[in-house]
Amino acid sequence: MVASKGFYCLFLQLLLLSFVFDVANSQGLKVGFYGKTCPNAEAIVKKVVDQTMSVAPSLSGPLLRMHFHDCFVRGCEGSVLLNSSTEQAEKNAFPNLSLRGYQVIDRVKSALEKECPGVVSCSDILALVARDVVVVMEGPSWEVETGRRDGRVSNITEALTNLIPPTANITQLKSGFQQKGLSVKDLVVLSGGHTLGTSHCSSFSSRLYNFTGKGDTDPDLDPNYIAKLKNKCKQGDANSLVEMDPGSFKTFDESYYTLVGKRRGLFVSDAALLDDSETKAYVKLQATTHGSTFFEDFGVSMIKMGRIGVLTGTSGEIRKECALVN
């Protein structure tokens, strides 16, 4: 009995230490972290993003999702950018094969290295680029906390384990976000990022042709929308691209919620937002309310997501090249 009490106390102490460590790490972030060491950092990032979006606006969605995918695996420490000679890094995992825009991150890093060698982390670049592509696509702006340092490990298995698939139901979604310290509101708000970009047919084709293994369609998907999607995604077509927010996929707005409310969300995970009272209420609010709160909410949730598992202080490193450990 005494031994079990001792073990329990030790467990509580370790849990408290872990909590304190996480809090201390996240508190190492602040707005304007590079104010003295690289005062033009954010302006340099913005310049590269603006130039890129002027010629390749379709990269907005992938660059926004790159920050998501980084934060959900090992935290926001740039591990999604690392290369592997054996193709066993996060970027080699199936959920990350659709990410594009690594060359944009490299271009930003190169410009920053010329201005301030060895100062700005790749993980901070991901956070700043995510904000800046949203702004260019007519979305909200928010103050990005910086001060992250870069991790040295990138593992394909961890990406497969931690990234939530587009086939997730509401229970899986809530659990996945809760494990990262994010709320149900964060879940429904950040899902709104699907207003930007496209998806390969393979991510949702089962909803069109073989939902339960009997050659059927997903009853939660609007039949008229199914007909339109079938015209773009023939059976067996894994490579064609479809707009996630048709007619608005290059504009950051709340129309995503209107589509979800009409049962036209592209993924099972989009439709799942109607299976929970809190997420459903938020979808309805954004779809029907003039003066939507989505823009403000999105900035708040992005800041919160950007604090997941960060490395600060003397932890990690500042990579010279984002794809390579120093």
Task: Give the overall shape, derived from the CA principal axes.
Answer: globular
- In which order are the strands of the major sheet placed? 1-2
Fraction of residues in β-strands: under 5%
Low-confidence stretches: 1-25
Count of beta strands: 4
N-to-C order of helices and strands? HEHHHHEHHHEHHEHHHH
**How widely separated are the two ends?**
50 Å
Rg computed from alpha carbons, rounded to a whole number of angstroms: 21 Å
Helix content: 40-55%
Mean pLDDT: 92
H/I helix tally = 14
Write up what this structure looks like.
The chain is mainly α. It has helices spanning 2-27, 41-55, 60-71, 102-115, 122-136, 156-162, 170-179, 184-191, 206-209, 223-232, 255-261, 268-271, 277-288, 294-305; strands at 30-31, 145-146, 198-200, 241-243. The strands form 2 sheets. The chain has a two-stranded antiparallel ribbon. It has a two-stranded antiparallel ribbon with strand order 3-4. α2 (41-55) packs across α5 and α8 (184-191) packs across α13. It comes from Vitis rotundifolia (Muscadine grape). Its main location: secreted. The record marks 65 as: Transition state stabilizer. It holds the Pfam family peroxidase.
List keywords for this structure.
326 residues, mainly alpha, two-stranded antiparallel sheet, globular, disordered N terminus
Please give the structural blueprint.
Layout lengths: L1 H26 L2 E2 L9 H15 L4 H12 L30 H14 L6 H15 L8 E2 L9 H7 L7 H10 L4 H8 L6 E3 L5 H4 L13 H10 L8 E3 L11 H7 L6 H4 L5 H12 L5 H12 L21
Helix pairs in contact: 2-4, 2-5, 3-5, 8-13, 8-14, 11-13
